[in-house]
Amino acid sequence: MTTSIGKRALDDAGRALLQRTARGRSEFEDLVVVPVFAVIVALILGALIMLATGVDLPTIGKSFVALAVGSVGSLNALSETLTASIPLVLAGLGLGLGFRAGLFNIGAEGQLLLGGTAAVVFSFTFPSLPFPLLMILSLIAGAAVGALYASIAGILKATTGAHEVISTIMLNLISYRLLEYLLRQPYIQKEGRSDPISKSVPDAGQLPRLLDWIDPNLRLHAGVFVMLLAVAFVWWLLFRSKIGFAFRASGANPDAARYAGMRSGLVIVAAMATAGALAGLAGAAQVQGVLGRASPGFSAGIGFDAIALALLGRSHPVGILLAGLLFGGLEAGGRQMQVDAGVSIDLIGIIQALIIVFIAAPLLVRAIFPWGFRKDAKGGKA
Amino acid sequence: MTFLSKIGLAAALVAGSVTAASAFTACQVTDTGGIDDAGFNQTAWKGVQDAMAATGIDGRFLESQAESDYEANLNSLLGGDCDVIITVGFLMGDATAKAAAANPEQKFSIVDFAYDPTIPNVVGQVYATDQAAFLAGYLAAGMTKTGVLGTFGGINIPPVTVFMDGFVHGASYYNEKHGTEVSVLGWNPESKEGLFTGNFDSLDDGRAFAQNLYDEGADIVLPVAGPVGLGSAALADELGTEALKIVGVDADQTQTDPQKAHVYLTSVLKRMDSTVQQVINAAMDGSFEGGLVVGTLENEGVGLAGFGSFEDEVPAELKAELDAIRAGVIDGSIKIGG
To answer: Across the interface, which of A65, A195, A332 has its CB nearest the CB of B156?
Structure first.
């Protein structure tokens, strides 16, 4: 008897282990194989679209070479790719965290705008603070304001049930106008200008450029460390901390989480605030590292691209980092495509969108490339 | 250097470039709104195209989709391939100054920005657009049936509002001469406040703002916001030109927007194509020098286009008055806003 029980237990354990590896295999396919094929299909379709719009074959070849060279082909290209990915990854981390908690936050754009503005205002309000202190405090100011702005939607949801998709979209619209209003206030507006534009971030508040000793045109800034720290932090938060477990549990099954004693209202507000803090940090990194000031629409759609990025990275911090690098590379390479091949920047947008479509539809990619996947990856093999 | 250039040449051959490697390359960074905006960016790019046709140089452009692209776009043109880099737009002023300081050997030129003091490797191209817009305001005041004109801008920056200044002053000058009471909605030259869409790319905004002005009684509208005005033109097309006419900006919009050509009463020309070509020529023949190029009515850097489909409707005496005013502005006997 005892042996048979022991055997069965062993069998169960073995099966569970097998299942886990199988699941690992399938996750590997989802995280790596699908995106790789998606990129390939998107590039091929992009080439077909270029052909359809009357671009000749040598130009298409040249433009893909330019895409590669412009994203990873030189020090400047790598610097531009990383620079472009910093705010995308930061905002994407926040959104991914929200998705894990079951919150579909569309408001990163607004949180990013107000967070960035707060960082600028803080930095020129205390210009006498010394270098690392002012830089760090300005980043924190950006994160704090982003968190506050996002928690409005969280509190509305927790107390009244207002759906976060609607409330964050509305908060985005409010943030655009609020920013334009703020940028016209004499305290914030740059002296001698009548258009909405803020004063500049003082030198001590800027994220220092890392490679300007090689070439003053290299724009990579210390925000890259902020980005890596944030990836590590979000990973720890989600998978190693108690509150992160509460986030994930609420996302997986809110009723069960509530039954298990988690306070859903608190979880919602905390998740929204954390997401907002990361988006605000993205805005702060952008103004302190790249732009040097705030102007209307300085977010340039990063908050929306970050939604795609978080989905692409399967809401996993490392996945989001990789997706962010891909997007950053597409942005930097797209510029080179314009310069070298004279291909429209709009085409890069199309290729980006195609990549997302294919990654979002893994079954489609599996259908196109059946040999790229284990047939029984989903189990259920007879 | 020769070794490097040989490698460059070989690379160009390997890449299979169709055009022969030219000795001279002019590069342009556009503002938001796109190179095909039927106005601002397109006119500036036409300057490079004209130079390409005239002297066989190479031309390249990069489109900015957002303000955050300015510096990145400028950077990707640095690195020695461009003999002159032309940035298009006032908002690129800071980014251009920064790039010019970091790359003192590179020749730059910027449309719509004047540095004070000037930068040795940057030519600013600016325009006395109010002179041409003054004529348009006078014409519009003479053509309106409702006695109300309208205008709106993209962003409240000098190269935009200078159109609106001239337009308002032109209409007031007409009132002064003819004892009429034509009013202009959308801009107050004294308080420097008015109607702005806040962007240079939303055709929807162009339509909505023109609709608002039309609802307030305006029958001629001057949109100063690049391609945004194309949305206003679409509205005028639907309402009919009896109800609403549009004054085009930057290029002769009957040419750049041929499908809606019939809605344009005239266009306020800002000949960026001519000044851009001028700068390229200077960079080619070695006479390039940092400073300013100013387009005026006198040197035809700004002007008024023809009356398009309204050629027969504009009374002969009004045309004669416009000619007299043009002469008056050039010789200084008519002061705009003075």
So the answer is: A195
Q: List chain B residues with CB under 8 Å of A180.
A: 198
ipTM of the complex: 0.73
Question: Does B21 contact chain A (CB < 8 Å)?
Answer: no
Nearest to A285 by CA among A308, A269, A312, A306: A306
Range of weakest confidence among A138-142, A278-282, B43-47, B76-80: B76-80
Q: What is the pTM of this model?
A: 0.81
What is the overall mean pLDDT for chain A? 86
The reported pLDDT for the residue numbered B337 is: 77
The answer to whether position B5 is within a domain reads no
Partners of B84 in beta bridges:
B26, B107
Shortest alpha-carbon distance between residue A109 and chain B (Å) = 14
Q: What is the pLDDT of residues A227-264, one digit of tens each?
A: 999 999 999 999 999 999 999 998 888 888 888 888 88
> Picking from A266-275, B33-42, B143-152, which range would have the lowest pLDDT averaged per residue?
B33-42
Segments of A28-177 assigned E as strands = none
Average pLDDT over residues A326-344: 85
Angle A70-A71-A77 from CA coordinates, rounded to 5°: 70
Does residue B12 lie within any of the structural domains?
Answer: no
Domain count, chain B: 2
Asked if A194 lies within 8 A of B16 by C-beta distance, the reply is: no
Residue B7 reports pLDDT greater than 70 = no
Considering the domain boundaries, does residue B191 fall inside one?
yes
CB A301 to CB B79 under 8 A? no
Chain A contacts of B112, Cβ < 8 Å? none
Contacts of A301 in chain B (CB under 8 A): 66
Please state, in angstroms and rounded to a whole number, the distance separating the CA atoms of residues B186 and B182: 13
Domain that holds residue B135: 129-270+307-331
Domain-located, residue A172 = yes
Using CA coordinates, name the residue in chain B closest to A197.
B91
DSSP A300-338: TTHHHHHHHHHHHTTT-HHHHHHHHHHHHHHHHHHHHHH
